[in-house]
Design brief:
CATH class of the largest domain: Alpha Beta
Oligomer: single chain
Helix content: 40-55%
Largest sheet: 5 strands, mixed
CATH architecture of the largest domain: 3-Layer(aba) Sandwich
Structural class: alpha/beta
Protein name: CRAL-TRIO domain-containing protein
Strand content: 5-15%
Number of helices: 13
Strand order of the largest sheet: 1-2-3-4-5
Number of domains: 2
Number of strands: 5
């Protein structure tokens, strides 16, 4: 197959930026877990806990326990037929890639209608949908972006659009919803966020941000920048105009709507063929760990 031309600027990789001391912690961490997990996955958890071995181990063990209790290994078969309806009152989705080849994830929080959302679906179903989205991101979205870019891609660019929001952003129900969604990423899928842009922030947002910010760990806070209505220039420094929807100041106007289209390299059949067998989902690692543990007991 013809080699793809590198069109985006690669960012330093997690494993490529480890210090000798951090690499030693990674080796120790992997040995303690039985060596059945890939370095990048373990590195994400270590970085999330500043390479503190004990804290990272606690986080990872909680992650494994959660995977088993939540039955994450079966989540890819979960069906969410109400997605199209959900997006009419909670517009969100992946849309193309940024200047570093990272997938762009957009949420129009200002258009969120929680009352209607939970007339269409339930909190439990949304939670399972979020988890499946993270698993899809790990197993398909990011690997596809890496193939398309011609270099490693490990994280995403997230854009939260608060345009059109009002006092409803101050409601406890909205806080609870945002907290539920952010907790999954922080606790179980750390270091997947590369950069977050919060745009069209209303005057009252500073009050809401004071409440939301403490939910986020320090590293996540450092990746977030907030902008008012004049954000377009900064955003277009991060992503090509053709990859940014018109409602965010770009040129893209997908026929079915940018957040309905799911446009991106992950839909390219040639790319799908490359990642289909070469990429092993994180969800498939846990059964390997259990099998290794059982074999060890037999010995």
């Amino acid at each position: 197959m013809e080699e793809r031309k590198q069109l985006t600027t690669p960012l330093p990789t997690l494993l490529g930026t480890l210090t000798p001391e951090e690499r030693q912690v990674l080796v120790r961490f992997k040995e303690a877990l039985g060596g059945n997990f890939d370095d990048h996955t373990l590195g994400r958890f270590l970085r999330a806990r500043k390479f503190n071995f004990d804290k990272a181990m606690e986080m990872f063990q909680n992650y494994l326990k959660w995977r088993e209790e939540f039955q994450v290994d079966q989540i890819m078969s979960y069906e969410f037929p109400e997605l199209e309806q959900v997006k009419t009152c909670y517009p969100h989705g992946f849309h193309k890639t940024d200047s570093h080849g990272r997938p762009i994830y957009i949420e129009r929080i200002g258009a969120l209608d929680l009352k209607r959302l939970f007339e269409i679906t339930t909190e439990d179903r949304m939670l399972r949908y979020f988890v499946k989205s993270y698993e899809t991101m790990l197993s398909i979205t990011i690997p596809a972006c890496a193939v398309a870019a011609g270099h490693p891609v490990e994280q995403s660019l997230t854009i939260l659009d608060l345009g059109g929001s009002s006092m409803k952003l101050m409601s406890k129900k909205v806080y609870k919803f945002v907290q539920m969604a952010s907790k999954i990423g922080q606790d179980y899928y750390p270091e997947m966020l590369g950069r977050m842009f919060i745009v069209n922030t209303p005057t009252l947002f500073s009050m809401a941000w004071k409440v939301i910010r403490p939910w986020l760990d320090e590293r996540t806070q450092q990746k977030i920048s907030t902008e008012g209505s004049k954000f377009q220039k900064k955003l277009l420094e991060l992503a090509p105009a053709d990859n940014v929807p018109q409602f965010l100041g770009g040129n893209c106007n997908c026929q079915v709507g940018c957040l309905m289209s799911n446009a991106g390299p992950w839909n390219d059949p040639l790319i799908q063929a490359q990642i289909g067998t070469a990429n092993i989902r994180i969800a498939e690692v846990e059964p390997q760990r259990k099998l290794a543990a059982e074999e060890e007991k037999k010995e």
